[in-house]
């Protein structure tokens, strides 16, 4: 949670002058006491300030644990996305398998003109390759999970939200998309333009980077 400018000003006043009453803070900022009620409640709730009856507010500051949590919440998917490995719907099963192993990824996105059509995983490819179909003739669109069933994230989403989705849906990778839905009544479409991917590995790297920052 990012503090507002007024909340930062309140924290500064209490840090420099505490203990200080709410009325004194309001006077310093030239506002009414009631105008500060919500800001003081937020600062107390997240542990920046501590309120003591008949005394006023003390500055506590964020603990290392809370600071780390704040840093984690500040990461967006955009900060950790990596380049997606993509094939077209017409790519055959054999070439898709080759692409997966040469690129060393566990998930491949199926796209047409950069728009998401589906996803295939290692399990999908293994299951299909064990069948009777010729892998050189089967298009990957026949075995992909279609876009209508996919879980995606957008660049502005919190990285923590992306991590939670991967846990909840038991997937290793999520497509990162920009929505360009066609709202026309004649031909409504869910158009998702792929801008990258985020995986458990990229999330882990971001969280590790966060843990090594000074708090």
UniProtKB/TrEMBL annotation:
<dbReference type="InterPro" id="IPR013196">
    <property type="entry name" value="HTH_11"/>
</dbReference>
<dbReference type="InterPro" id="IPR000644">
    <property type="entry name" value="CBS_dom"/>
</dbReference>
<feature type="domain" description="CBS">
    <location>
        <begin position="144"/>
        <end position="214"/>
    </location>
</feature>
<dbReference type="InterPro" id="IPR051257">
    <property type="entry name" value="Diverse_CBS-Domain"/>
</dbReference>
<dbReference type="InterPro" id="IPR046342">
    <property type="entry name" value="CBS_dom_sf"/>
</dbReference>
<keyword id="KW-0129">CBS domain</keyword>
<dbReference type="InterPro" id="IPR036388">
    <property type="entry name" value="WH-like_DNA-bd_sf"/>
</dbReference>
<feature type="domain" description="CBS">
    <location>
        <begin position="80"/>
        <end position="138"/>
    </location>
</feature>
<dbReference type="Pfam" id="PF08279">
    <property type="entry name" value="HTH_11"/>
</dbReference>
<dbReference type="Pfam" id="PF00571">
    <property type="entry name" value="CBS"/>
</dbReference>
<protein>
    <submittedName>
        <fullName>CBS domain-containing protein</fullName>
    </submittedName>
</protein>
<dbReference type="InterPro" id="IPR016842">
    <property type="entry name" value="UCP026546_HTH-CBS"/>
</dbReference>
<dbReference type="InterPro" id="IPR036390">
    <property type="entry name" value="WH_DNA-bd_sf"/>
</dbReference>
């Amino acid at each position: 949670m990012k503090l507002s400018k007024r909340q930062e000003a309140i924290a500064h006043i209490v840090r420099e002058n505490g203990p200080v009453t709410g009325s004194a803070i309001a006077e310093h900022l030239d506002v009414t006491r009631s105008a500060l009620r919500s800001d003081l409640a937020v600062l107390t709730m997240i542990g920046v300030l501590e309120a003591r009856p008949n005394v006023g507010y003390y500055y506590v500051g964020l603990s290392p644990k809370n600071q780390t949590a704040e840093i984690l919440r500040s990461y967006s998917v955009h900060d950790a996305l990596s380049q997606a490995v993509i094939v077209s719907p017409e790519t055959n099963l054999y070439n898709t398998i080759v692409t997966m192993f040469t690129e060393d990824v566990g998930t491949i996105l199926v796209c047409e003109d950069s728009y998401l059509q589906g996803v295939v995983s290692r399990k999908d490819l293994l299951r299909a390759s064990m069948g009777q179909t010729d892998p050189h003739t089967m298009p990957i669109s026949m075995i992909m999970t279609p876009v209508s069933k996919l879980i995606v994230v957008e660049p502005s989403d919190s990285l923590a939200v992306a991590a939670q989705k991967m846990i909840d849906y038991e997937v290793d990778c999520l497509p990162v998309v920009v929505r360009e839905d066609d709202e026309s009544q004649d031909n409504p479409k869910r158009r998702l333009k792929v801008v990258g991917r985020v995986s458990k590995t990229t999330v882990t790297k971001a969280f590790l980077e966060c843990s090594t920052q000074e708090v």
